[in-house]
Design goal:
The structure holds two protein chains of two kinds.
Chain A lengths: L1 H17 L3 E7 L2 E6 H20 L9 H21 L7 H16 L24 H32 L7 H36 L4 H33 L1
Antiparallel strand pairs in A: 1-2
Helix pairs in contact in A: 1-6, 2-4, 3-4, 4-7, 5-6, 5-7, 6-7
Chain B lengths: L2 H12 L3 H21 L4 H30 L2
The chains are: A mainly alpha, B mainly alpha.
Chain lengths: ~250, ~70
């Protein structure tokens, strides 16, 4: 049956696209550390962002020119948002939360610069979203929850922190402890599930309708969904930090 | 019925959690539009709680998706 053969290639394509390959292995201190393609993708995004940060902030002037104006508007937007949500300690967290937001925007939108293939030739390189790997999102979520934990102790003091565990009533103590497991898990799974789901749907669309439709669907699944998820992750992190130090 | 078939049917059932998000997010969106129409100057705060709400409503659908993926590619 030709139909079954066709379905097989689609599912093979999806499994191949979802798979995370180990590019090379580092042997250090008696351990084998496998380095996957998502780790390399993360490094590339980090390098691009760091270089961009150096280049964009190299010649700052008192009277800004065009790139600096855009940069100031963008940073000002993030800073205003964080300070507005967290309060007067907000300035301390602008760098951390802003970095997470910018990294996620870059990571989620990077697949959009994949050159177009089709009509019999393969694109020269394919960029897959790095956030489709649950380890990347788990690392981000754990970073956020560790920040929440230590900033809560730091700004409330050890005594105030212990008191906050038993608020509003002592019987809430186990639930307050459980939040430290639930919050990072839901942050991590939300980002991972959204990006992977959108990625699988895009693979399906590309396999079924290879011409003309994928760019249109990509506007929604890559651009819109990626941006929304970056905003939601940064927003929820901000809310967790705000709740922890108020 | 072998295990793989049963797992695939289970994955299909797990994805039905999308129903909850599909009903919940439009309600939240509609109420947000109403609230902003009533009080446009509070749109910043309304959008904030809207984002929080849809993120939480969507979580159930995502858990369904993750369970379905675990069932298929275990």
């Amino acid at each position: 049956m030709s139909d079954a053969g066709h379905a097989m290639t689609i599912s093979e394509k999806i499994v191949e696209g979802m798979g995370i390959k180990t590019v090379f292995t580092i042997h250090a201190f008696g351990f084998d550390v496998p380095i996957s393609d998502t780790v390399i993708g993360t490094w590339i995004i980090m390098a691009v962002l760091i270089i961009a940060a150096f280049i964009l902030t190299r010649k700052l002037r008192e009277i800004p020119k065009k790139p600096q104006l855009l940069l100031e508007a963008f940073i000002g937007f993030i800073s205003d948002f964080v300070v507005d949500k967290i309060g007067h300690h907000g300035k301390d967290f602008v760098a951390f939360l802003g970095t997470i937001f910018i990294f996620l925007v870059a990571a989620n939108l990077a697949p959009m610069i994949t050159p177009m293939g089709g009509f019999g030739f393969e694109p020269p390189f394919v960029i897959k979203p790095v956030t489709r790997d649950i380890n990347v999102t788990a690392a981000l979520a754990i970073t956020v929850i560790v920040t929440v934990f230590f900033s809560s102790i730091f700004y409330r003091g050890p005594k105030g922190y212990l008191k906050s565990l038993f608020s509003p009533i002592p019987i809430m103590f186990p639930f307050n402890l459980m939040e430290y497991a639930i919050k990072p898990m839901s942050l991590c799974l939300r980002l991972f599930g959204n990006i992977l789901g959108a990625y699988i749907i895009m693979l399906l669309i590309e396999a079924v309708v290879p011409v003309a439709f994928p760019p249109l669907a990509g506007l929604y699944f890559d651009l819109f969904d990626g941006l929304i998820q970056a905003v939601v992750f940064a927003f929820l992190s901000t809310m967790y930090v705000a709740e922890a130090i108020e | 019925m072998d295990v793989q078939t049963a797992a695939c049917i289970g994955a299909g059932i797990a994805v039905l959690t999308g129903l909850g998000a599909g009903f919940g997010i439009p309600i939240a969106t509609g109420k947000t539009s109403e609230a902003i129409a009533r009080q446009p100057e509070a749109s910043g705060k309304i959008t904030g709680s809207f984002l929080l709400g849809i993120a939480l409503a969507e979580a159930t659908a995502i858990y369904g998706l993750v369970v379905a993926l675990l069932l298929i590619f275990k």
